[in-house]
Design a protein that fits this description.
It comes from Pandoraea aquatica. This is Inosine-5'-monophosphate dehydrogenase. GO terms for molecular function: IMP dehydrogenase activity. The protein is mainly alpha-helical and 373 residues long. It folds into 2 domains: 153 residues, no CATH class; 124 residues, CBS-domain. It is 54% helix and 7% strand. The chain is built from 15 helices and 6 strands. It has a 3-stranded mixed sheet. Helix 3 packs antiparallel against helix 6 and helix 9 crosses helix 10.
Length: 373
């Protein structure tokens, strides 16, 4: 497919820096936090190990971790298990690859690839952990001499120190961290009509946040629209015919004359009316279409007038649709919609176990209930 000029322009726009909707005070707070976190981590390592040590008192990946912990603390990639689990997994994989794969390039590539796969497996994805894996492979003789001790000192120790600094700093500055996953609230009906979400809405919502969220306005708006669709789909699965149906406004006896059915349709503004037998069981439907077709074919009763004598006008049973399709009160909405779509008149009677009428469902009833659910 050929790319248009607009497509090329949109693609090139992706190289431009994104607008960061974060107040300058939050930016300053994040920078000071990273300064404090790295200083505390490096200072403690220096105090514990002394100025002369074969163990690195600060490894480069901690700088990348500080960006997430202090700059984007709401990100799932910056949570405690992410930094601890991700760094430890990557360190173990990196040391193992350095020991058993003699070619540095192959060892480095394998270490990063396997680390990413395991981080996804253990739900501890942390981007700086990729640098931990590379450091274990390419860190030189001093790092290689540590062997698996590299996992504990410096990686585990520095990760714990940096994480502790972040927790303390966010608490002191009145910032929520970590962002723990809240328990799912019990599902309850939402009595509000969904309003379309635009990118401009998402930009304004992000601008009001006191911290940076690692999601673009376009992605957030798209996510909200997908969420609305999923909510509608879930609600549609939960609804049944009993939730959607309306009380039957009218029904007509099979032995009654056709004008009686026509008057009911006119009076209540219906497209179809259920037909019942002498025991009140629904045996069919009579629709406006049925009556109009019959009227067009039988010109001698154009308005169902009284010009014909008693007994000369046909009974409802002569015009009704006998191949009745009906629903039960417990029928799911998904099945109900599929059945309703086959009805030209858009009316579906809801029957109980004794084939007696308990309600009627129309297209309008379904739309009204789903939209307002």
């Amino acid at each position: 497919m050929a790319m248009t000029r607009r497509d090329v322009k949109d693609w090139m726009a992706g190289f431009l820096p994104a607008v960061v909707a974060v107040h300058w005070r939050e930016r300053l707070r994040a920078g000071i936090g990273a300064l404090c976190g790295i200083a505390v981590t490096g200072g403690l390592m220096l105090w514990l190990l002394g100025p002369v040590s074969y163990i690195p008192w600060l490894v480069a990946p901690m700088g990348a971790s500080a960006v997430l912990l202090f700059g984007v603390p709401a990100s799932p990639l910056a949570q405690p298990w992410s930094i601890l689990g991700g760094n430890l997994v990557a360190a173990v994989v990196g040391v193992t690859c350095a020991m058993f794969i003699p070619t540095p390039v192959i060892a480095a590539a394998t270490a990063v690839g396997v680390s990413i796969a395991l981080m996804f497996t253990f739900r501890c994805v942390h981007p700086p952990s990729g640098a931990v894996a590379l450091t274990a492979v390419l860190g030189g003789p001093a790092v290689h001499a540590l062997g698996y001790g590299f996992v504990l000192e410096p990686i585990a120790l520095q990760s714990v120190m940096l994480l502790g600094s972040a927790i303390g700093y966010h608490a002191i500055t009145g910032h929520r961290y970590p962002h723990a996953t809240k328990a799912q609230a019990p599902a309850r009906p939402v009595n509000a009509q969904a309003i379309p979400v635009t990118t401009a809405d998402a930009e304004k919502a992000l601008a009001r946040r006191s911290e940076l969220l690692d999601i673009s306005a376009d992605d957030l708006a798209s996510l909200m629209r997908d969420t609305q669709r999923e909510a509608f789909a879930r609600r549609a699965q939960e609804l049944t015919a009993a939730d959607v149906m309306a009380p039957p406004l009218a029904k007509v006896q099979a032995h009654e004359e056709v004008p009686a059915a026509w008057r009911l349709l006119q009076r209540h503004g219906l497209d179809a009316v259920p037909v019942v037998d002498s025991e009140a069981r629904v045996i069919g439907l009579v629709t406006r279409h049925d009556l109009h077709t019959r009227r067009a074919r039988r010109q001698n009763w154009p308005r169902f007038g009284v010009s014909l004598g008693a007994g000369q006008r046909p009974a409802v049973r002569d015009l009704m649709q006998g191949d009745l399709k009906s629903a039960t009160a417990g029928m799911p909405l998904s099945e109900l919609v599929a059945l309703l779509s086959t009805q030209r008149h858009g009316t579906l009677p809801v029957l109980d176990d004794a084939a007696r009428l308990v309600g009627v469902v129309t297209h309008a009833d379904v739309l009204r209930k789903v939209v307002n659910a």
